[in-house]
Amino acid sequence: MNRFLLLAMLATMATESGAIDFDNLKKLEDRIKGATGQSSSAPQAPRAAPGPAPSQVPSIPPVGNVPEADEVKIGRQIAGNLLGAAPLVNNPALQAYVNRVGRWVASASERPDLKWTFGVIESNDVNAFAAPGGYVFLTRGLYRLLRDEADLAGVLGHEIAHVVRKHHLKLLQKSQAIDVGSNLLKDQIGNQKVTKTLIGSGAEILARGLDKDAEFEADRMGVVLAARAGYDPFGLPAVLQEISAASADSSSVALLFKTHPHPDERLARLGEAMGDRFDALKRSKNLQERLVRLP
Ligand SMILES: [Zn+2]
Predict the structure, then answer these.
(1) Nearest Cα to 154, choosing from 164, 165, 146, 166?
(2) Measured between alpha carbons, how far is 206 from 223 in angstroms, rounded to an integer?
(3) What b-and-e string marks burial along 254-279, b requiring 16 or more CB atoms within 10 Å of the CB?
(4) Cα separation of 172 and 149, whole Å?
């Protein structure tokens, strides 16, 4: 079972683009529009006094020059491919909820204006994925480990950080799946062959993972984003502890363990980075009662 998602993603590389599930993605995007609208989650979201966090995030170095519209197109292809391998959990209330929380946390990031799209996908693996342009998915298996909304905010914060820092986009550039130097990208997207290469590289990155430093950076930034959004910043560390408790040879965490540093190592690095700077925020909102429960 653990290899299902990975194999399915890789399998869709080999087939024609018929496996890409844009219908599912479109439905999700439409639903989010209806559910959250422009005002996003503001009326319901927690707002704590600004924490000490913002100054801890160094500014983003300019990377490449992929226009945002192209970045979104690239991410959409990869997200569609992922949904072809594992569809969304059929629970509109859950999807709307995850989008409300995700968009609120993203609004605290350096890229608040991206069209952020979040979803919970049908897989019992414990994992989460981000694609360029603002697409973020977590599995049912990971969602079920969450105790409250602060945990969710921490997990989404980590993935949002990958998008904000363009970790996957940079790797795609490095692998030369996209040619940043040329202006041809616009014409290339939609071209079957280029799309296939792009999606192949995207799936490969999701399967192989980013480098460790990118993961540690996303952890640090995820905590900061959750805190900025008014949540208890210890949500992400709490989830990492849960994952750590799951044995490494448990099949549901095999892919996560393969693509990320061990949760204990991530916790140690986070502990160093956080120090006691977040202690004052320990009593920020957890919102346990608001988490949409999944069977
Ligand atoms: Zn990550």
Answers:
(1) 146
(2) 22
(3) bbbbebbbebeebbebbeebbeeebe
(4) 32
Q: Give the residue among 268, 267, 246 at the shortest CA–CA distance from 257.
A: 246
Maximum alpha-carbon separation in the chain: 53
Element (H, E) at 83: helix 68-85
CB 105 within 8 A of CB 136: no
**Cα 206 to averaged position of ligand 1 atoms, centre (Å):** 10
Query: Which chain residues have CB less than 5 Å from ligand 1, an ion?
Result: 215, 218
User: Distance from the CA of 82 to the center of ligand 1, in angstroms?
Assistant: 16
pLDDT tens, position by position, 182-238: 444 545 555 666 666 666 777 777 777 888 999 999 999 999 999 999 999 999 999
Place of tokens 């690095």: 269
- With beta carbons less than 8 A apart as the criterion, state whether 131 and 169 touch: no
